[in-house]
Amino acid sequence: MALALVLVLPVLGAVVIGAAGWRPWSAWAAVGANGALLGAGIALSVHIVDHGTVTGAWGVLRADALSAFMILVIAAIALLASWLGVRMIAIELSEGRCTERRATLYGVLVQLFVTTMLLAVLAANLGVLWVGVEATTVATTFLVGHRGTKGSLEASWKYIVICSVGIALAFLGTVLMYLAALHAGGHSARALDWTWLMAHARLLDPSVMRLAFALVVLGYGTKVGLAPMHSWLPDAHSQAPAPVSALMSGVLLTVAFYAILRFKAICDVAVGPTFPRTLLVIVALLSLALAASLLLTQRDYKRMLAYHSIEHMGLIALGAAAGIELAIAAVLLHILGHGLAKSVLFLTSGEIMAAEGTSRIDKVRALLGRNPSLGGVFGVGLLALLGFPPFSLFVSELVMIRAEFQVGLGWAATAALVAMVVIFVAVAGHARHMLFGPSGGTTMTTPPSAVTMVPLVAGLAVCAAIGLFAWPLTGLLQAAAHTVAL
Amino acid sequence: MSGPSYASALALFAGAVLVCAVTVLWVSSVRMVVRVVALQGWALAAVAVSLGLQAHDAGLVAAGVVVAAVKGIIIPLLLRRIDASDVTAREQRPLVNVPASLVVSAALILLAFASTRVVSRVVGGPAGPLVGLGFATLLVGFFVLVARRRPVFQIVGLLLVDNGVALVAFLVTAGVPFLIELGVTLDVLLGVVVLIVLAQRMRHQFGDIDLDELQELHD
Fold first, then answer.
1. CB-based contact (8 Å) between A476 and chain B?
2. ipTM for this model
3. What are the domain boundaries of chain B?
């Protein structure tokens, strides 16, 4: 019952916008629904830490600590993104860049997008998980193409074609796991249930499981944006409206990674930890190398943020490769910290684009002098993403590296550190150009209103707070890491 | 159905799925390719129904009926609407020409059978040796995606990938549970609808185009 309620909350927002059309009040009602979702997520997390796993909807839905944690991440970022979306659409409507029908479609699809992500993390069954992740692609394609420009249509075409292929491979992996489960004595109705698979993982045929896991990493990895299947990501994230980029980069990538974590836990038992670890290390290092080389020459700040996401997905994959409880807890903390910081940055970049009229790095100068509040948030957000204390990414990166050394992946952690240094230099260079520099002759731009600033500052403040005092999350993180760790 | 005739019917239908995939590489007219994809949908449905009849599994027969309705009727009807304005539309400048495409597909089929020996062994029975057909269909679908440039052909490539995966699913596990099968088919249908709407928007915006003319986004 409680779990079905979690799914219904964002749908309510979609229904209100769909029925009333895009109005300021209906848009704020959807923001309210996402706020209520965050409240429900917190209540559910507290309940699960105290009383254990919850199931609902005749066994189709199931929430353990890991699902609850992902609900928190999804709800927090949905709240930020829908809040900023209200003003963005209002500006587009007033400038005639968007019709009312498009605005309504946008509002409905954002809420459905949030619902499909929730379905994915609440699925008790790996088949339903697949249906949820695939549905995110369908829900987001029109959102990527919202602006209707040549570039955004190209990006949405690439996005749906590449991700559909990826997700088809993930389905093939799921089918092969189902085959292994049936041969291990599973009954067809329950053989894809996560609890059944974990209980019987030792009986699964290792050679079929290896093929299944490789397909799953390749398939869901496409949606995570891991190299070499990343090519849709920079286009989609740079062309989508800022709130959609925030949701995609902040949570959609990690929801797909959540699927890999679930499969990995089964595979760790079925074929031993070496095979999944090797695969994840390969894609992680490839992603880091790719992000480092392309960030150096980046000329567009939204694409810069997109490649930065590929870097962080690489770090998360490397942490997951280590696999011990400490590493997984750090991976989850990193998922939350990256989600918050990256969505604040994408939302800020949307405001910068609205104020400056360009997404090119070399056209934006001396932002800190001309628009201190926007420039300030952008600068602080980048510091958070680059792993400076007190933000939580500093803690999670440190712990991941420690865990990697602990399991003998020190060489991979060292390679990752080298890539991180290169990325630091590249991003700091671009940021210096945008934030400082001579402001002679350039005009001040209108500072954003308080309604815009509140969620941006709050997002960064929460990111710093969980870096300083992790205690409200410790119990949840430990319980969540325990479900999928080695 | 008795043993041998069941096995040969299954092999015939599964083989037809792959033959349709290779035929896609061979034809260039949009109208023809949509017919081939519809035929492939029916062949896939026939695989599901014969497996279901043999195993007395009502869920699997129902899945076959859903597949026939969605992939044999609805999706082809929708696809026909994209190029409704010019029914004679053709793929004029494929990136890889037809003879070379057929050679590549032969290599892909060999690769598919070589790489699925493990799975075939685990599955066993009359369906086991046929698993390679599904993988081969999937690989030919990939090839269509990279070698053909009209939007319709790209959608067809995706459908081939999808039908290949579905064929493997039916053969190795007699289909996933019916509820999941419904969800999967619905997702595919919605995905195709989205692709068709996008293709029409692009056509409206830029006129009749090949996809490699889209060069707005790069680093």
1. no
2. 0.91
3. 3-213
| B105, amino acid identity | S
Query: Is A257:A121 a contact under the CB 8 Å cutoff?
Result: no
A154: nearest CA partner in chain B = B214
- Interface residue B209 vs chain A (CB under 8 A): no
What one-character DSSP code corresponds to residue B212?
G
Give the closest-approach CA distance of A233 to chain B in angstroms. Answer: 11
| Cis geometry, peptide bond prior to residue B76 (ω within 30 degrees of 0) | no
Q: Determine how many CB atoms are found less than 10 A away from the CB of residue B98.
A: 13
CA–CA distance, A41 with A45 (Å, rounded to integer): 6
Predicted local confidence at residue A368, as pLDDT: 87
**Cα–Cα distance for residue pair A351/A369, rounded to 1 Å:** 16
What's the gap in Å between the CA of B92 and the closest CA on chain A?
A: 21
In a domain, residue A397? The reply is yes
Residue A365 counted as domain residue: yes
Answer whether A109's CB lies under 8 Å from A81's CB.
no
Cβ contact B155:B161 at 8 Å: no
Work out the pLDDT band at A180, boundaries 50, 70, 90: very high
Residue A367 placed within a domain: yes
Instruction: Tell me what pLDDT residue B1 has.
Output: 52
Q: How many domains does chain A have?
A: 1
Is A390 strand, coil or helix? coil
At residue A26, the pLDDT reads 94
Extract the runs of DSSP E, i.e. beta strands, from A57-148: 61-63
* DSSP code for A447: P
For residue A123, which residues of chain B lie inside 8 Å, CB to CB?
none
Determine, yes or no, domain membership for A356: yes
Per-residue model confidence (pLDDT) at position B88: 56
Task: Catalogue the E-assigned strands of A229-346.
Answer: none
- pLDDT top residue among A148 and A384: A384
One-letter amino acid for residue A315 of the chain: L
HEC secondary structure over A308-372:
HHHHHHHHHHHHHHHCCHHHHHHHHHHHHHHHHHHHHHHHHHHHHHHHHCCCEHHHCCCHHHHCH
pTM exceeds 0.90, yes or no: yes
Asked if residues A163 and A137 have their Cβ atoms less than 8 Å apart, the reply is yes
Residues 6+ apart with CB under 8 A from A121: A67, A70, A71, A74, A132, A255, A258
Residue range(s) defining the domain that contains residue A287: 274-486
N- to C-terminal Cα separation, chain B: 59
